[in-house]
Amino acid sequence: MNVRELRPDDWPAVRAIYEEGIRGGDATFETDPPSWKTWDAAHPELRLVAEQEGELVGWAALSPASPRRCYRGVGEVSVYVAEDARGAGLARALLDQLVERSEQAGYWTLTAGVFPENEPSIRLHKACGFREVGIRERLGELHGVWRDVVLLERRSTLVGT
Fold it and tell me: Which domains does the chain have, with CATH numbers?
């Protein structure tokens, strides 16, 4: 497996993996993937992909938490792995790399919002140093159902200490 920076020409594969997560129903409130232009603007830096045997099988990206300068080191993580590649440690490799690169870029806090039903994602984040800070009850509606979101946070031991 190879983890590298995402390139614009990776978008069709990234979009397809994102669509799988949307269809699964426990990865995001989104019901349709955005355009490349919208996704690119929301994830201006720290975007990674995992390749296995020449095929793109996962991605991870960081979104700034706020445009305000005081929050310049706070970002929200997203990690997605293709259905047929899950369980092989790809998500862990992607998230570990994203954490490492975020610290190199000066991020001191990473957050993630995960549906409580997505237990593998919660376990992944906790294994990568995130802790549960609370549950945002009925945060949003998806397909007529109000969903809770587990809020996870990771504080850097290298930046902002």
Answer: 2-155 (3.40.630.30)
